[in-house]
Specification:
There is one protein chain. The chain is built from 18 helices and 30 strands. The chain has about 650 residues and is α/β, with parallel strands linked by helices. The strands form 8 sheets. The chain has a 7-stranded mixed sheet with strand order 4-3-15-14-16-17-18, sandwiched between helices. A 7-stranded mixed sheet has the order 11-10-7-5-6-12-13, with helices on both faces. Strands 22-23-24-25 form a 4-stranded antiparallel sheet, with no helix packed on it. β5, α6 and β6 form a beta-alpha-beta unit.
Length: about 650
């Protein structure tokens, strides 16, 4: 029988710690006495909240807005920062010129530092290089690179030049790279010759070539380039001065990809306003201050890559980048030597650290907080993580690419219970509804818009159908927090429930007896594997083409005690494959590695005679998830499945 989890707080902030936070400073400015009052105010006075955050962050405008938000077209299509003209990249360079912008280390190398002045100069050289090469405002330029100092400069240089970044993970196969280049209509791509991981050279440029990519700008000199492709040195301008191209707030800055349930990734555009959400979450929920050192082992192909850039630089902090294997002690040594204050993780990474004990004995005392996102975490893993830095708190952070950050998270002014969330993100609100659309302590969570950061369109799908169609009406029941707060009158009227449509996100959430929240996975057939969203359909399309496979169903399951989702395949196979499960596992894992993503690891394969289906012939994956949970509850049966 699974043990009962208590989810009790294990870290309590002192009054001194609370008073040092950005949240406390905001509460003092608003003359509010408690965090619940602050969140209630931010949810009821969205326009004033976002205006205050724009001022606190010092967002730089060429032409200032005349109105924070125009809701004439409803909360599905808010117009933020009406009549403003700005380029968000300029707000990334407001720290002192000699302050460290990036601390970085290559695997086996030494630590180097890039100041804000040096990063700015390199960013300008990229922007000038794009203009010199003939690229125009609005052109889509892809990046398929690991997270290194140059990729940060390339990212910001593309935006500063008025172009649009296309984010592609360097781990993707050629087919997946090609799909994203096609969806975004990219006109060029930045990449490098190979990636060094664990002492091995992993080819990257050859994958880009196999994807039939457009003009490529390539870092590194170990490969021969196609005709028309450029080396980094040939591309880079010598001119380190550039005036950023001012843009409409809704102009695209970045196209990112998130899987839906149809097998084709959703193409999600970020605008010049989206980074304000990243920076606000960093400022308030992660408590990033000027001079803090922030690390998150990530990639520009995942939203946390761009998030890290904006949350760090707009808050005048330092990005810490380690180009190596995060499961090795070398990464932990970097965390120690770089003096990292805020460390972001994916739960499965922490589980590996715990299993191998590779981080034991290091001095992580500079860390003031961890943050965990990408998948559900286990309390015992998060408690172990806390112990590595003298029991510092973990901010759980749940959101998505289409949110620009989180919708539910934690703070440093509330006690920390491992693997729980303490609050909806400031500036928005949520409601949990049961299957009948009634407020409940456990069910599907819906976001109450509007908020800066929330997407308003998709490039290849109907945004309304994905996020708003057939959502339940907003309940006007007592669960709403009272708005009779001890604050001065707001110049912006509160948003009325009658004007709001609920926004679907697809997560299940439980409100615990202590008022905290616990994530319960997805309500649809999209999975979080290794911190990356992928649909069942994408995996099944790859596996169904393999020899001996009649049909597959991919599901994600967690153990009864919680923790990251793991991939399980139910397979209908030909008779000659029935008794050779080990070989089948090897074959299917190789197919995923080669044609989808090697980060997606198969935990188990269950061979069945047929898949359960609805009357309309749809596979009932929820039934399969329930069946496998029964298997997990009886470990002795696992080897017989």
């Amino acid at each position: 029988m699974a043990k009962q989890l208590s989810f009790e707080p294990v870290w309590f902030p002192s009054n001194e710690q609370i008073q040092a936070t950005n949240i406390a400073a905001l509460m003092k400015e608003l003359k509010l006495d408690s965090y619940p009052e602050l969140h209630a105010w931010s949810a009821q006075h969205r326009a004033e909240f976002w205006e205050m955050m724009i001022q606190r962050l010092g967002i730089y405008f060429r032409e200032k807005y005349t109105q924070i938000v125009d809701l004439t077209d409803g909360v599905e299509s808010p117009q933020w920062l009406v009549n403003a003209r700005f380029n968000i990249a300029e707000s990334c360079f407001l720290a002192p010129a000699d302050a460290p912008a990036i601390i970085f280390q290559a695997e086996g190398g030494s630590i180097s530092t890039l100041t804000y002045s040096e990063l700015h100069a390199l960013t300008n050289r990229v922007a000038n290089g794009l203009v010199d090469a003939g690229f125009q405002t609005g052109d889509a330029i892809a990046i398929a690179m690991p997270m290194i100092a140059e990729s940060v400069a390339i990212y910001l240089g593309i935006i500063k030049a008025g172009c649009v970044v296309v984010s592609i993970a360097d781990s993707f196969s050629a087919a997946e790279i090609a799909k994203r280049l096609h969806l975004s209509k990219a006109k060029a791509i930045f990449t490098q010759d190979y990636i060094l991981r664990g002492g091995k050279q992993l080819p990257l440029y050859t994958k880009v070539v196999d994807a039939n990519a457009p003009t490529s700008i390539v870092l590194g000199s170990s490969v021969e380039l196609r005709p028309g492709d450029l080396t980094w040195e040939e591309f880079l301008s010598s001119n380190d001065e550039f005036n950023a191209i001012p843009a409409h707030p809704d102009a695209y800055t970045n196209i990112l990809f998130s899987s839906g349930t149809t097998g084709e990734p959703k193409a999600i555009p970020w605008t010049h306003t989206t980074p304000i959400k990243c920076a606000t979450d960093g400022h308030l929920h992660h408590d990033i201050h000027p001079g803090d050192v922030v690390a998150w082992h990530t990639n520009l192909g995942w939203m946390m890559g761009p998030w890290l850039i904006y949350a760090s630089l707009i808050n005048r902090a330092t990005i810490a980048l380690y180009c190596g294997t995060p499961t090795d002690r070398g990464y932990g040594q970097f965390i120690q030597d770089a003096g990292i204050n805020i460390l972001g993780v994916v739960p499965s990474l922490v589980n590996t650290w715990k299993t191998t004990a590779c981080m034991q004995g290091l001095d992580w005392s500079a860390i003031k907080a961890f943050s965990s996102t990408g998948e559900c975490s286990k309390p015992e893993d998060m408690l172990y993580l806390m112990s590595l830095a003298g029991y510092k708190p973990v901010i759980e952070y749940c959101g998505g690419t289409e949110i620009g950050g989180g919708y539910i998270t934690g703070t440093l002014v509330q006690p920390c219970a491992p693997s729980t969330f303490t609050t909806p993100a400031l500036g928005l609100d949520i409601v949990i509804l049961d299957a009948d659309g009634h407020p409940a302590d456990k069910g599907e969570v819906f976001i109450i818009p509007p908020s800066i950061g929330l997407s308003t369109e998709l490039l290849n799908k109907n945004h309304h159908q994905v996020y708003f169609a057939n959502t339940p009406p907003l309940p006007d029941a007592p669960w709403r927090v009272s708005t009779s707060l001890p604050i001065s009158p707001s110049p912006h009227p509160p948003l009325l429930p009658s004007s709001i449509s609920l926004r679907r996100h697809g997560d299940q959430m439980e409100r615990l007896p202590n008022g905290y929240y616990r994530a319960c996975g997805r309500v649809d057939d999209t999975m979080n594997l290794a911190g990356i969203k992928v649909s069942s359909a994408e995996i099944e399309q790859v596996l169904d083409e393999e020899e001996g496979i009649c049909e597959t169903a991919a599901i994600a399951v967690s153990s009864p005690n919680g923790g990251p989702s793991q991939l399980v395949i139910y397979a209908v196979v030909t008779p000659d494959v029935q008794d050779n499960k080990a070989t089948l596992m090897t074959t299917l894992q190789a197919a995923i590695n080669q044609r989808l993503n090697p980060l997606f690891k198969i935990r188990d394969i269950v061979i069945v005679d047929a898949l359960p289906r609805t009357a309309s012939n749809k596979v009932m994956r929820r039934v399969l998830r329930d069946r496998y949970r029964d298997i997990l509850a009886q470990p002795a049966r696992l080897s017989k499945s």
